[in-house]
Amino acid sequence: MARRVKQHERILGLLRESSGPVDAHHLAATLDLHVTTVRFHLAGLEEEGLVRTRQLPAERVGRPRLGYVAVKEPSYTDLVALLAARIGGTPTEREDKAFEVGSDWAGMLALAPAPTVDAATLVIDALQQLGFETQSATNAFGTHSLTLCTCPLAEIARTNPEVVRGIQRGLIQRVLDDHADLLRSRYAVDVRPDPQDGNCLVQLVLRPEKGGTTSARDDGRVVTG
Prior knowledge:
Layout (H helix, E strand, L loop, with lengths): L1 H16 L4 E2 H8 L3 H13 L3 E6 L8 E6 L5 H10 L5 H17 L11 H11 L3 E8 L2 E8 L3 H6 L1 H18 L1 H4 L2 E8 L8 E8 L16
Antiparallel strand pairs: 1-3, 2-3, 4-5, 5-7, 6-7
Helix pairs in contact: 1-3, 2-3, 5-8
Pfam families: HTH_5 (PF01022)
Protein name: Transcriptional regulator
GO molecular function, one term: DNA-binding transcription factor activity
């Protein structure tokens, strides 16, 4: 049974790596399996909805060959990418709209911070719930700097960086604002993409404010690297 599952996964893995449809004979030759075995697994994968068939041109006279492609697994980043591509207006307007989306996103979290929590810990906990990973956190002269090594929105940043900046800034600002009484301070948020177009590392600087609220564009500035 374990061997059957392994063959199942190998075939699916090869299809996911392929840039186009692959027929059973090619899969069999690549994986050193009998073509009948490959077809058996392909039928199971198709039944599970993990692969689809495509007609391939015939190599010689006869009926067309049948190719197989892996079905892409949808994710929330795909949905965000589609929405980002359809947000109209200027880059500034798109970023402001994304700020509101990020704020609403953070509002869906059910955070239960400890009584002694600080701003950096609070933000790190929130970001981890959303799929971000923190590489480092420092605190100097009241200014917290967090460096993220993983961002679930990295692919979207390649085409819509202003939307990703807005989402990141909005969700962090909302988390801080919602816990201002606990933190005994209000914070403004700067999102600073790294020199590599902000696709991986993002610097978040949390500076205590003297008072008042933070709007989408006034105090929560975005400084691009």
